[in-house]
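Researcher: Let's try something more involved. This one mixes different molecule types, so please make sure each is placed in the same coordinate frame as the others.
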Amino acid sequence: MNIFMESTTSIVQIKGIRDGLLATFEEASWEVQRAALMVQINERSAFFQGARLALDVGTQVLKVNDLVELRDWLSDQTITLWAVVSESPTTETTAQLLGLATRISKPRPEEVRPVHEAVSSDTALFVSKTVRSGTRIEYPGTIVIFGDVNPGAEIVAEGNVIVWGRVRGMIHAGAKGDRSAFICALDLSANQLRIAEESSAMLKPQKDPKPEIASINDEGKLQAELWHTGETIIRK
Amino acid sequence: MTAQVITVTSGKGGVGKTTAVANLATSLAMDGKKVVCIDGDIGLRNLDVVMGLENRIVYDIVDVIEGRCKLKQAMIRDKHFTDMYLIPAAQTRDKNAVSPSDMVRLCNDLRADTDFVIIDSPAGIERGFRNAIAAADSVLVVTNPEVSAVRDADRVVGILEAEEKGNPSLIINRLNPTLVKNNDMLSAEDVLDLLGIRLIGIVPEDENVIIGSNRGAPVVTDGKSRAGQAFRNIAKRLQGEDVPFMDLAPQSGLWNTIQRLAGRK
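Model: All components are placed in one shared frame. Result:
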């Protein structure tokens, strides 16, 4: 146990940031990282009293249960877990589902950038459930959703957004400025659509919804039109 | 007996969570079940008022958790049903006085000799809500046919899915069939369409509900009230019975108008 305790300080680093405390971890399994964090908190409980804690878990893939368990434990120690920063889309989605922030004001160190750049426009995040109010999904490539996007949900993709379902929330495609991005859905009655810097006002819910595709037209306006089979819209 | 722990929640406030808890618990007690209600709204308690037990409170849930009394001492017996109890919330503390694991422990202690434990969740999605759903075997989401209430319910359903709490069931409360008919209110279909969860009951708007809440006599004890009937049906469904949904189509005609004016429809 003693050897383990000594090693914990090297596995987890705690530092102060503008929004509270940030814990970063060395490469290890989640069990080891979590145990190291708990040891640190137990040892310096006075320091952590009432703290707002953010975690940077790197590439660690975390499921809902992992985070819920830790959050409940932290809340018992009067520590609020408010953000989980991760390079893994799964972990980010988990954090978003739990209503945790996935970005903190501290800019991400430059060396993680290549991970994002490595995502080409052909790489897609597949979400096979309805995206409910309060959930925000961000991805540096294309997002494909098999389900609805409900009012109050936000989808932000650097590439395209394809929804096999109804869209009633906010969708932003080409979020980094790609004006050739498109949004398509079986029913596009979104309360707001954005492509690059263009945004559309509310689209009228249709009585008899038909698949539609929204893109930026030749006049530079965001426009939604009915989907016609056989028409090629994917440029590049 | 192994109790079923049911949490009633909504996200938005004022949609009728507390009323639903009082009515469902009373219905279950009328069916001869042993029921314990827990008021999870620590700091803003009001289930005791709706159940008419306000002046009988000696100990509350925080006293149990902090060990100042035994669980049995905090269980207030109902005035009419001997097998129905309330564990009231503390009015002078806040949500942080209870942790999710405290709620799990408390409910596990109740499971052995109870049929139903019904937890009234506070509004919101913060600590109090987390406490209320921690021990739940199943969750009832209450919403009104209003855009804002439905959106909050959607958020709550999303969190429940993320917490892997199983599929929640939906109660649509305060539906006004006349307004729906005139397209002035979301219909039950609109709400279900958006939330996509199982419907367990639709409760029509009924002023007897408010009268009952203020008197501390839940509306299910009023045999003629339509809302009371709707809550009794939900209670039957909770016990696994297959009860057909009530016909809520607005009734016209002179006799119905008179009845409506008399507050019976």
